[in-house]
Amino acid sequence: MDPHNDPRLVVRFWKPHGVLTAFTDREGRETLADFIDIPEIYAAGRLDRDSEGLLVLTRSKSLRGQLMDPDIGHPRTYLVQVEGIPDEASLRQLRAGVELKDGLTRPAKAQLLDLPPQLPPRRVPIRLRRSVPDSWLRVQLTEGRNRQVRRMTAAVGHPTLRLVREAIGPIGIDGLDPGEWQILDDDASAKLQASVNQAEESSRSPHGRRRSGRRSPG
What percent of the chain clears pLDDT 90, i.e. is strictly above it? Predict the structure, then answer.
Protein backbone atom coordinates (compact mmCIF):
# COMPACT_ATOMS: atom_id res chain seq x y z
CA MET A 1 0.00 0.00 0.00
CA ASP A 2 1.16 3.50 -0.82
CA PRO A 3 1.97 5.01 2.62
CA HIS A 4 0.20 8.22 1.57
CA ASN A 5 -3.05 6.19 1.43
CA ASP A 6 -2.51 4.29 4.68
CA PRO A 7 -5.40 4.93 7.12
CA ARG A 8 -2.91 4.50 10.00
CA LEU A 9 -0.46 7.02 8.55
CA VAL A 10 1.75 8.79 11.12
CA VAL A 11 4.02 11.73 10.28
CA ARG A 12 6.62 13.56 12.33
CA PHE A 13 7.14 17.23 11.54
CA TRP A 14 9.51 19.92 12.84
CA LYS A 15 7.21 22.92 13.21
CA PRO A 16 9.15 26.14 12.72
CA HIS A 17 8.68 29.22 14.90
CA GLY A 18 5.74 31.35 13.76
CA VAL A 19 3.71 28.53 12.20
CA LEU A 20 0.18 27.78 13.44
CA THR A 21 -0.75 24.22 14.40
CA ALA A 22 -3.63 24.28 11.93
CA PHE A 23 -4.12 23.82 8.21
CA THR A 24 -6.09 27.04 7.65
CA ASP A 25 -5.97 30.58 9.01
CA ARG A 26 -8.30 33.47 8.17
CA GLU A 27 -5.52 35.97 8.82
CA GLY A 28 -3.21 34.48 6.22
CA ARG A 29 -0.52 33.37 8.64
CA GLU A 30 1.69 30.36 7.94
CA THR A 31 0.06 27.05 8.72
CA LEU A 32 0.84 23.35 8.41
CA ALA A 33 -0.56 23.48 4.86
CA ASP A 34 2.46 25.55 3.81
CA PHE A 35 4.66 22.53 4.56
CA ILE A 36 2.62 19.31 4.49
CA ASP A 37 0.65 18.29 1.39
CA ILE A 38 -0.88 15.03 2.63
CA PRO A 39 -4.70 14.99 2.68
CA GLU A 40 -6.84 13.94 5.64
CA ILE A 41 -4.14 14.11 8.28
CA TYR A 42 -4.50 15.87 11.63
CA ALA A 43 -2.16 17.03 14.37
CA ALA A 44 -2.26 14.88 17.50
CA GLY A 45 -1.79 17.83 19.84
CA ARG A 46 -0.42 21.27 19.28
CA LEU A 47 2.44 23.67 19.74
CA ASP A 48 1.97 27.39 20.29
CA ARG A 49 2.87 29.64 17.37
CA ASP A 50 6.01 30.88 19.17
CA SER A 51 7.16 27.35 20.04
CA GLU A 52 9.07 24.99 17.76
CA GLY A 53 9.82 21.35 17.30
CA LEU A 54 8.06 18.04 17.01
CA LEU A 55 4.47 17.59 15.96
CA VAL A 56 2.95 14.17 15.35
CA LEU A 57 0.20 14.05 12.73
CA THR A 58 -1.91 11.02 11.94
CA ARG A 59 -5.04 9.68 10.27
CA SER A 60 -5.59 7.23 13.14
CA LYS A 61 -8.44 8.52 15.30
CA SER A 62 -7.53 6.12 18.11
CA LEU A 63 -3.86 7.15 18.28
CA ARG A 64 -4.80 10.81 18.03
CA GLY A 65 -7.31 10.38 20.82
CA GLN A 66 -4.75 8.69 23.06
CA LEU A 67 -2.11 11.36 22.45
CA MET A 68 -4.63 14.10 23.25
CA ASP A 69 -6.19 12.43 26.30
CA PRO A 70 -5.44 14.62 29.36
CA ASP A 71 -5.44 11.60 31.68
CA ILE A 72 -2.75 9.62 29.87
CA GLY A 73 0.68 10.60 31.14
CA HIS A 74 2.55 10.17 27.87
CA PRO A 75 5.96 11.91 28.00
CA ARG A 76 6.85 14.97 25.97
CA THR A 77 10.40 16.30 26.10
CA TYR A 78 11.43 19.92 25.56
CA LEU A 79 14.65 21.86 25.13
CA VAL A 80 14.13 25.13 26.96
CA GLN A 81 16.31 28.23 26.86
CA VAL A 82 15.68 30.34 29.97
CA GLU A 83 16.83 33.59 31.48
CA GLY A 84 19.38 33.06 34.21
CA ILE A 85 20.88 29.83 35.48
CA PRO A 86 18.49 27.77 37.61
CA ASP A 87 19.95 26.51 40.87
CA GLU A 88 19.25 23.11 42.35
CA ALA A 89 16.33 24.47 44.38
CA SER A 90 14.60 25.68 41.20
CA LEU A 91 15.21 22.34 39.50
CA ARG A 92 13.81 20.49 42.51
CA GLN A 93 10.70 22.64 42.33
CA LEU A 94 10.16 21.76 38.68
CA ARG A 95 10.70 18.09 39.48
CA ALA A 96 8.28 18.11 42.41
CA GLY A 97 5.52 20.09 40.68
CA VAL A 98 4.82 23.80 40.38
CA GLU A 99 1.71 25.55 41.68
CA LEU A 100 0.08 27.40 38.77
CA LYS A 101 -3.22 29.25 38.56
CA ASP A 102 -4.89 26.08 37.30
CA GLY A 103 -3.38 23.89 40.02
CA LEU A 104 -0.29 21.91 40.88
CA THR A 105 1.52 20.41 37.91
CA ARG A 106 2.56 16.79 37.81
CA PRO A 107 6.21 16.16 38.68
CA ALA A 108 8.51 16.76 35.73
CA LYS A 109 11.99 15.67 34.80
CA ALA A 110 14.28 18.72 34.64
CA GLN A 111 17.99 18.78 33.82
CA LEU A 112 20.34 21.76 33.44
CA LEU A 113 22.44 21.19 30.32
CA ASP A 114 26.18 21.78 30.43
CA LEU A 115 26.24 23.00 26.82
CA PRO A 116 23.60 24.53 24.54
CA PRO A 117 21.94 21.93 22.29
CA GLN A 118 22.87 21.84 18.62
CA LEU A 119 19.83 23.56 17.12
CA PRO A 120 19.44 25.67 14.00
CA PRO A 121 18.95 29.40 14.64
CA ARG A 122 15.39 30.48 15.23
CA ARG A 123 13.72 32.40 12.41
CA VAL A 124 13.21 35.37 14.70
CA PRO A 125 16.33 35.81 16.85
CA ILE A 126 15.99 35.53 20.61
CA ARG A 127 16.20 38.86 22.41
CA LEU A 128 18.90 38.39 25.03
CA ARG A 129 19.74 40.87 27.75
CA ARG A 130 23.46 41.47 27.98
CA SER A 131 23.27 41.83 31.74
CA VAL A 132 21.43 38.51 32.25
CA PRO A 133 22.97 35.12 31.43
CA ASP A 134 20.90 32.38 29.83
CA SER A 135 20.98 28.61 30.03
CA TRP A 136 19.31 25.51 28.59
CA LEU A 137 17.17 22.90 30.29
CA ARG A 138 15.77 19.57 29.15
CA VAL A 139 12.28 19.22 30.62
CA GLN A 140 9.98 16.22 30.29
CA LEU A 141 6.28 16.51 31.10
CA THR A 142 3.49 13.95 31.29
CA GLU A 143 0.71 16.49 30.81
CA GLY A 144 0.07 19.33 28.41
CA ARG A 145 -1.62 22.36 29.89
CA ASN A 146 -1.74 25.60 27.94
CA ARG A 147 1.78 27.09 27.71
CA GLN A 148 2.76 24.88 30.63
CA VAL A 149 6.54 24.84 30.22
CA ARG A 150 6.66 28.62 29.93
CA ARG A 151 4.49 29.08 33.00
CA MET A 152 6.51 26.57 35.02
CA THR A 153 9.88 28.16 34.31
CA ALA A 154 8.48 31.63 34.97
CA ALA A 155 7.06 30.43 38.28
CA VAL A 156 10.53 29.39 39.46
CA GLY A 157 12.07 32.69 38.35
CA HIS A 158 13.46 31.77 34.92
CA PRO A 159 11.29 32.96 32.00
CA THR A 160 11.48 30.91 28.83
CA LEU A 161 13.25 32.50 25.87
CA ARG A 162 13.04 29.64 23.38
CA LEU A 163 11.07 26.41 23.48
CA VAL A 164 11.73 23.42 21.21
CA ARG A 165 9.86 20.14 21.61
CA GLU A 166 12.50 17.48 21.20
CA ALA A 167 10.41 14.31 21.46
CA ILE A 168 7.01 12.74 22.00
CA GLY A 169 7.63 9.41 23.65
CA PRO A 170 10.19 7.55 21.50
CA ILE A 171 9.73 9.82 18.46
CA GLY A 172 12.16 12.74 18.17
CA ILE A 173 13.17 15.51 15.77
CA ASP A 174 16.60 14.01 15.07
CA GLY A 175 17.37 13.97 11.36
CA LEU A 176 14.85 16.70 10.52
CA ASP A 177 15.34 20.38 9.85
CA PRO A 178 12.70 23.01 10.64
CA GLY A 179 9.88 22.69 8.11
CA GLU A 180 10.71 19.08 7.19
CA TRP A 181 8.41 16.09 7.72
CA GLN A 182 8.75 12.33 7.43
CA ILE A 183 6.31 9.44 7.32
CA LEU A 184 7.05 7.02 10.15
CA ASP A 185 7.83 3.48 9.06
CA ASP A 186 5.99 0.54 10.59
CA ASP A 187 8.64 0.01 13.26
CA ALA A 188 8.62 3.63 14.46
CA SER A 189 4.80 3.75 14.41
CA ALA A 190 4.65 0.55 16.45
CA LYS A 191 7.09 1.97 19.02
CA LEU A 192 4.98 5.11 19.39
CA GLN A 193 1.79 3.08 19.79
CA ALA A 194 3.43 0.80 22.36
CA SER A 195 4.66 3.82 24.31
CA VAL A 196 1.19 5.36 24.37
CA ASN A 197 -0.41 2.05 25.37
CA GLN A 198 2.08 1.64 28.21
CA ALA A 199 1.35 5.16 29.47
CA GLU A 200 -2.38 4.49 29.31
CA GLU A 201 -2.03 1.26 31.27
CA SER A 202 0.09 3.03 33.88
CA SER A 203 -2.43 5.85 34.24
CA ARG A 204 -5.20 3.36 34.90
CA SER A 205 -3.29 1.27 37.43
CA PRO A 206 -4.04 1.66 41.17
CA HIS A 207 -0.73 3.45 41.61
CA GLY A 208 -0.87 5.39 38.35
CA ARG A 209 -1.17 9.10 37.85
CA ARG A 210 -4.63 9.21 36.31
CA ARG A 211 -6.50 12.35 37.09
CA SER A 212 -9.10 14.27 35.15
CA GLY A 213 -8.31 17.57 33.57
CA ARG A 214 -8.30 19.43 30.33
CA ARG A 215 -5.29 19.13 28.09
CA SER A 216 -4.17 21.72 25.63
CA PRO A 217 -1.84 19.15 24.12
CA GLY A 218 1.54 20.62 23.46
Answer: 79
